[in-house]
Amino acid sequence: MGSGVQHALEQLKTTGVRITPQRHAILTYLMEAMNHPTADDIYKALEPKFPSMSVATVYNNLKMFMEAGMVRELTYGDNSSRFDANVSDHYHVICQQCGKIEDFSYPALHDVEHRAEQATGFKINGLRMELYGVCKCCGENAE
């Protein structure tokens, strides 16, 4: 298990959240899944281990993680919220055909936030950038 998960759980404890085995599993799954899973994906993956867990449990825990600032909800056109445990600055590249989302980092974009602050006097808290295209798999299938 990566140290990222441990660190995240320590952080939660300081906010007074009880770390149940289910929460541990949800967070671990989220941090290790690079595909920005939906609550349903998470439920299906963990259900064999936690037969008593419901989709609602997954949702409630995701909400709690979001309130703690550890998970981001990504809402895109297909109406299914996806969840991302990577809250560092990064951007998303989205396939318009299969909906796959990949992370992409580009430090120069910090500059954009800084310029925006200077130009508008706003205090910028974050930037959400989405790039749309066709992923390699879909591109190869089209040929």
UniProtKB/TrEMBL annotation:
GO biological process: negative regulation of DNA-templated transcription; regulation of secondary metabolite biosynthetic process
UniProt remark on cofactor binding: Binds 1 zinc ion per subunit.
Domain of life: Bacteria
SUPFAM superfamilies reported for this sequence: Winged helix' DNA-binding domain
Cofactor: Zn(2+)
Keyword field contains Metal-binding: yes
Binding site for Zn(2+): C95, C98, C135, C138
Any GO molecular function: zinc ion binding
Keyword match Membrane: no
Record's GO cellular component terms: cytoplasm
Key words of the record: Cytoplasm, DNA-binding, Manganese, Metal-binding, Repressor, Transcription, Transcription regulation, Zinc
Compartments reported by the entry: Cytoplasm
Family (UniProt): Belongs to the Fur family.
Its job: Manganese-dependent repressor that controls a regulon of oxidative stress resistance and iron-storage proteins. May act as a hydrogen peroxide and organic hydroperoxide sensor.
Protein known as: Peroxide operon regulator
Organism: Paenibacillus albidus
Gene: perR
